[in-house]
Amino acid sequence: MKLTRGYISPYFITDQKTQKCELENPFILIHDKKISDMNSLLKVLELSVTNKRPLLVVAEDVDSDALAMLILNKHRAGLKVCAIKAPGFGDNRRATLDDLTILTGGEVITEKRGIALNKVRPEMLDTAKKITVTIDDTIVLHGGGDKKFIEDRCVQLREATERSSATFDKEKAQERLSKLSGGVAVFKVCHSFLKTDGVAVYNSCKCWF
């Protein structure tokens, strides 16, 4: 699976020499909207800290207090975390996020499905064996999705490719099929302290980078 997005901020880098952010066995939060409010991320940060798992946030965008809080938790609390923008636009973005959740075994966190960010449970989060993020791209290795679901989605996309008479739709379906069947996702882009349920999470409202 090959897409195009990289880290939103260089503050997420874990290896200064290679300029990469590497996450081993991370939780992956996939959200279909922009995240600006830091409070909306408290629950998923709590889950990450409690389970001692790195965190990758994939959203339309992450900015303002939310972005600052992620950066603060990395540098002050030692949490391995990264945020990238979701690839694509409109229907194509939604389809891509759905494909990504099939590959990584979670679900898109969206209020349209009655799921709020502050109600996220561990089983809703996606997983992968390893994620490597650079300024230009992100590689997701060995997603935690069910192989049967991945195969079923590939069959659907293959049928859509054969059925479509529109060149654009056919190309998009073929592109999605290639990404899923490849099993690797490459995302590319050009350039205080709180306690919640006893878990320490840094608050970025007074700390900016």
Write out key terms for the chains shown.
209 residues, alpha/beta, single chain, eight-stranded mixed beta sheet, GroEL
Describe this structure in words.
The protein is of the alpha/beta class and 209 residues long. The protein has a single domain, classed as 3-Layer(bba) Sandwich (GroEL), CATH 3.50.7.10. The chain is 34% helix and 24% strand. It is built from five helices and twelve strands. The chain has helices spanning 42-50, 64-77, 90-104, 147-163, 167-182, and strands spanning 21-24, 27-31, 34-35, 55-59, 61-62, 81-85, 108-109, 126-133, 137-143, 185-188, 194-196, 199-201. Strands 1, 2, 4, 6, 7, 8, 9 and 10 form an eight-stranded mixed β-sheet that branches. Strands 3-5 form a two-stranded parallel sheet. It has a two-stranded antiparallel sheet with strand order 11-12. A hairpin with a 2-residue loop joins β11 (194-196) and β12 (199-201). The longest helix has 17 residues, at 147-163. The radius of gyration is 17 Å and the shape is globular. The two termini are 33 Å apart.
Detail the topology: elements first, then pairings.
Elements: E1 21-24, E2 27-31, E3 34-35, H1 42-50, E4 55-59, E5 61-62, H2 64-77, E6 81-85, H3 90-104, E7 108-109, E8 126-133, E9 137-143, H4 147-163, H5 167-182, E10 185-188, E11 194-196, E12 199-201
Parallel strand pairs: 2-4, 2-7, 3-5, 4-6
Antiparallel strand pairs: 1-8, 2-8, 8-9, 9-10, 11-12
Helix pairs in contact: 4-5
Report the CATH topology name: GroEL
Number of domains: 1
Helix coverage percent: 25-40%
CATH class: Alpha Beta
By DSSP (H or I, 4+ residues per run), the number of helices equals 5
Order of helices and strands: EEEHEEHEHEEEHHEEE
Rg calculated over all Cα atoms: 17 Å
Specify the CATH architecture: 3-Layer(bba) Sandwich
CATH homologous superfamily heading: GroEL
Report the average pLDDT across residues. 87
Beta strand %: 15-25%
**Uncertain stretches of 5 or more adjacent residues:** 187-193, 204-209
Largest sheet entry: 8 strands, mixed
From the structure provided, what is the oligomeric state, counting identical versus distinct chains?
A: single chain
SS content category: alpha/beta
Total beta strands: 12
Termini Cα gap: 33 Å
Shape: globular
Family: Belongs to the chaperonin (HSP60) family.
GO molecular function: ATP-dependent protein folding chaperone
Keywords: Chaperone
InterPro entries: Cpn60/GroEL, GroEL-like_apical_dom_sf
